[in-house]
Structures are given as C-alpha cells and as structure tokens.
Amino acid sequence: MKKFIAMFMCVALMVCVSVSAQDIYKTAANVPMVQLNNGVLMPQFGLGTFMQPSDAICKQSCLTALKAGYRHIDTAHAYNDERGVGEAVKESGIPREEIWITSKLWPTEYGEGKTLKAIDEMLARLQTDYIDLLYVHQPVGDFVGAWKDVEKAVAMGKVRALGISNFDANDEVFNKIMSESTVKPAVLQIECHPYAQRLAMREKVKPYGIHITCWFPLGGAMSNGALLKDPTIMKIAESHGKTAAQVILRWHIQEGFSVIPGATNPDYIEENIRIFDFELTDGEMAQIGSLNKEERFFNATLEQVENMVWNAKLSD
C-alpha cells in the first residue's frame, strides 16, 4: 500500500511539473501568468499608464481597470502618475499581493548609492513596501551604477524582479548591462506590434530567458490608427465578432509577449481585457505574422532620447 501511495504521489508530481505556470495560474479575469527567469509569476496583461494626464485621472483609470479584472499596472517616475497608481491600489480593496505593480527609474536617478534613495521615494509615492518589477527606463547615463543598487533592492526585499526598458537602442548598451549585472534582467520592455515584430531582438534575448513586454502594442498615437485600420486585422476581427484592438492584443498574448495597452476611456479599458474568450487560429496568426515590416512608430535616435532625458521634469 505504501509503495502504491508513493508511486501515485510521484506520478502526480510529474503531472504538475509538466503543466506550465500559464496553465495553472490565472488572475481574476482569466489572464494567464508568465514565469520569469527568476521564477516569479507575472500577469501577462496589464494597464499602461503612459500619458495619463494627471494623478487623479490615472487613479480613475486604474480603479476602472482593477474592477474589470486587471491585476498588472505599469507606471514610471517619468509618467508623473505613480501617486495615482498607489491611491487606486489602496482604494481598490484588492489585497496588495494580488496586484502586480511595475515602475521605472529615470536616468537622473541612476548611480550607485543614489538609486536606492530613489527607490525608497518611489515606494513612498506608490504607498507600498515593494515593487514587483522595476526597470531602468532608458539606456542613458550611469545605468550600470543604478543596476548595482537595484540588485541590492532585490536582496532587501524591496523589488521582486528587474527589467530593462528600451535597451534595444544598440548592441553596446544591451551587452554592457548583461556583462555588468549579477542579477540578470527578467524582462525587456520595447515597442512591439504586428508592424514591428522585433524578430532579431527576440532572438537576442532568448538565451537569457528574458521575457518581452510590449509598449505601443496598438501602435500608439503616432501611428494614426494604422494597425486598427489594417484590412487583414479588420477581416480577422469581423470573423470573431471582436474589434481590431482585441485581435491585435490577442496576437500579442499568443505570441508569448506581455502587453500593457494604455487607456483612460473606461470603455476602451474594459474592451482591451476582453481577449481571453477567443483564440486566433494558426492561419490567422500566420496572416498577422506576414504583416511584419519591422516598422516602428517611435523612431527617436539615442542622441534625441538623451536630450529628452536630461530636459525632462519629474514630480517629486
């Protein structure tokens, strides 16, 4: 009997191991989780808060999203809306551990001995004891010094996972952060969508197990709605009774990306998350895959980004 029980437990364990984290763990709205290279589970879909006009509006956007089932909110010091995120999380009544908060450090906060102070200030703005995912926002300035401090923050329990944002600028910045880091980046956040599928960058991060999160997943304001008006995407959307935006976001999920569409309109916030009740066929995925032109909508040079960085005004 003991031998039978032992065999049963062994088989059960093998079954559990063979099932992915994405299959087992899902949020309240059936959003799958991805397992990062440090073992931490992150909701694959969230709300981006870039270009939220104020903390008050950001707070309402986040509350709408959390009510709709979102459990991942992506903010940044440079967005000047972290306080709105923190207030929404606090007022939502949802346990903190059920909400994934992502934020980003700005280059003016980079530097060993300087970045830890900036993290404490970020925690105060967000009204939380820890950040789930913390990025260095731009590959400008002393990002190596910043990385040494964010590694310390992980050891201190103030941060759960580390990421690099926009480190697709060139090989030099990517290789430098990889060679200088002890705790390797778990996530890379870059512009990515059906017109810029970033095939080369995806191959570049694969050996490190770095997960990709996509900004401008719908093209952003700079695209003038190009993706949403694409005939191929519109035809697929019609066949599923879905919107073009929902099809694009579904494509991201099935490609294995995490995606953080931004919105302030409650209807759009609720529409965007309604993508877990249908699937694109292999043929439809191939059709969208064929749209790739590696055509980005944000095309600032690293020099232009540097000028933007040092001229930006951040809230305290």
TrEMBL record:
Active site: Y79
Annotated residues for binding of substrate: H137
Keyword Signal: yes
Feature type site, description Lowers pKa of active site Tyr: K104
NADP-dependent oxidoreductase domain segment(s): 62-292
Reactions it catalyzes: hydroxyacetone + NADP(+) = methylglyoxal + NADPH + H(+)
GO molecular function: oxidoreductase activity, acting on the CH-OH group of donors, NAD or NADP as acceptor
InterPro entries: AKR, Aldo/ket_reductase_CS, NAD(P)_OxRdtase_dom_sf, NADP_OxRdtase_dom
Span of the signal peptide: 1-21
Any Pfam family the entry gives: Aldo_ket_red
Keywords: NADP, Oxidoreductase, Signal
UniProt record similarity statement: Belongs to the aldo/keto reductase family.
Name recorded for this polypeptide: Aldo/keto reductase
Species whose genome carries this gene: Phocaeicola vulgatus
Taxonomic placement: Bacteria, Pseudomonadati, Bacteroidota, Bacteroidia, Bacteroidales
